[in-house]
Amino acid sequence: MVLSGVSSPHRLVESVRVAYGFRGIDVESFIVVRSTGLASQVGIPEAYKAALRYGKPLVVLPSVRDVLELFKFDEVYAVLPGRDDLRRLEDLDLKGPRCALVFSGEEHGRSELPVEVISIPELPADSPPQAAIALALHTVLRRRAGTGANAIAR
């Protein structure tokens, strides 16, 4: 999971809790990119504590390009809620063991990563990232049911 451009400490901490607390999908790491304001000052330490409680890492990077340079993902998708004109998350067949889903921490935000943009049209466009993360994980879990594959992101 990648959360980009978050300024709210609450959005950051709850996103980490949802990603790592979700049962059925093993989120190997949570990456925060371009956190600003209170998210950087208060949210990062709290999110780090939440990640430690799950025995998982929290990676904090200064730029979106660092994600692609430092992590060799098989597939990377930016997820935007509330868009009917994009490919749907439920239509994806995530093949690689190292997949990343990128969520924007900003309202009406869009990822700056040069990746395919997909949507969860059932959610309102201004949904917080933790809601989009929960629904995305649930969707992936449903798609993978019975395949034996249960790892997403790294």
Could you explain the architecture of this structure?
This protein is α/β, with parallel strands linked by helices and 154 residues long. Helices cover 34% and strands 23% of the residues. It contains 4 helices and 9 strands, in the order βαββαβαββββαβ. The strands form 2 sheets. Strands 4-3-1-7-5-8-6 form a 7-stranded parallel β-sheet. It has a two-stranded parallel ribbon with strand order 2-9. Strand 3, helix 2 and strand 4 form a beta-alpha-beta unit. Helix 1 runs parallel beside helix 2. The longest helix is centred in the N-terminal third of the chain and has 17 residues, at 37-53. It starts with a strand and ends with a strand. 38% of the residues are buried.
Overall average residue pLDDT: 86
- Beta-strand proportion: 15-25%
Count every beta strand, where a strand is a DSSP E run of 2 or more residues.
Answer: 9
Number of helices: 4
Shape: globular
Strand order of the main beta sheet, please? Answer: 4-3-1-7-5-8-6
Unreliable stretches: 146-154
* Protein structure class: alpha/beta
Distance between the termini: 7 Å
- Whole-number radius of gyration? 14 Å
Proportion of residues in helical segments: 25-40%
Order of helices and strands: EHEEHEHEEEEHE
Largest sheet: 7 strands, parallel
